[in-house]
Specification:
By secondary structure, this protein is of the alpha+beta class. The chain contains 3 helices and 8 strands; from the N terminus they run H-E-E-H-E-E-E-E-H-E-E. It folds into 2 domains: 103 residues, Hypothetical protein ph0010, domain 1 (Glycoprotein, Type 4 Pilin); 62 residues, Dna Ligase, domain 1, CATH 3.30.1490.150. The longest helix has 16 residues.
């Protein structure tokens, strides 16, 4: 059973409001329609959706750095994208809204690292980059218990082979549920 909406962090409330308005009305809400005050500087944001009843992933879309003028706008855009544009899933339908669990991860700026020893999959997300190909994996993902697995998955997401040289970056997140 889901907690009352007002008990969720304001960014999660905003993501839910954005998804609900878009799925039901095809309308993108504005930041001044946020159910609670939103503070914070513009930043990269990932919105992750799970089915609350099963825990299954339902969508995840985000940005590494800010692409919108405010944190609220970043959350709105990425929440709608997670619900409607994740290529792995059909768009969320109105009957699914009540079963969505939503996480909002606000990213700190990535920092370059030289070795895997500087990673910790519980604390840091990772970005692997080779030329224009880039893959990202958020921190603290269930089943990702070591840095080798974390980097392997990020490489796969970017289409980068295991033997190709890459630049590595780590980042922290503030995760809200």
């Amino acid at each position: 059973m889901r907690a009352p909406e007002e008990t969720y962090h304001p960014l999660v409330q905003l993501a839910r409001a954005a998804i609900t308005a878009y799925v039901r009305e095809r309308r993108k809400i504005s930041p001044d329609e946020a159910p609670a005050a939103i503070t914070g500087a513009p930043a990269g944001v990932f919105v992750t959706l799970h089915r609350e009843s099963t825990g299954d992933l339902r969508g995840c879309i985000g940005t590494i750095g800010p692409t919108e003028p405010s944190l609220a706008q970043e959350v709105i855009s990425n929440a709608i994208s997670a619900a409607t544009r994740d290529w792995r899933f059909q768009p969320v339908g109105p009957t699914e809204l009540a079963d969505l669990a939503i996480d909002v991860s606000v990213l700190y700026p990535p920092e370059p690292i030289a070795t895997l020893a500087e990673l910790n999959p519980r604390r840091y997300g990772v970005i692997v980059q080779r030329g224009g190909r880039r893959g990202l994996l958020l921190p603290d993902i269930e089943g990702v218990d070591d840095t080798e697995t974390q980097v392997r998955i990020a490489r796969q997401k970017a289409g980068i082979g295991p033997e190709e040289a890459v630049k590595l970056y780590r980042f922290r997140v503030e995760k809200y549920t």
